[in-house]
Amino acid sequence: MKSEKLETAILAILRESHRGSIDNSLAEWGNLLQAKLGERPNQIDLVAAVKRLRNAGLVHLRKYTGHEADFYDYDEQLNVDWFFYTGTFTVAITDEGRGVDVSSPIGFKQPA
Reduced to 3 states, what is the DSSP secondary structure of residue 105? Predict the structure, then answer.
């Protein structure tokens, strides 16, 4: 699956959410994307796509630990396996993400 198609579908799903955010496991994200795209993305590709969207400022990633109302915002210092592959995590669209046209694949320019 092309990364541009996956990134665009993630933003489109978030825009359809009444709060603009979804707290799901990686498996549930796969289900949402399969329903939207007709095929299930590879989990590694899905993680890479949400990280690219986050790095571009289009989504915010957060994880609730379940302990004393602790939340962790995703950054490169956190354990990727813990953040994405255990429990749920929240993907929230930002104001910048709402401004992106999702009628066609968005794609990101690769460094030269």
Answer: coil
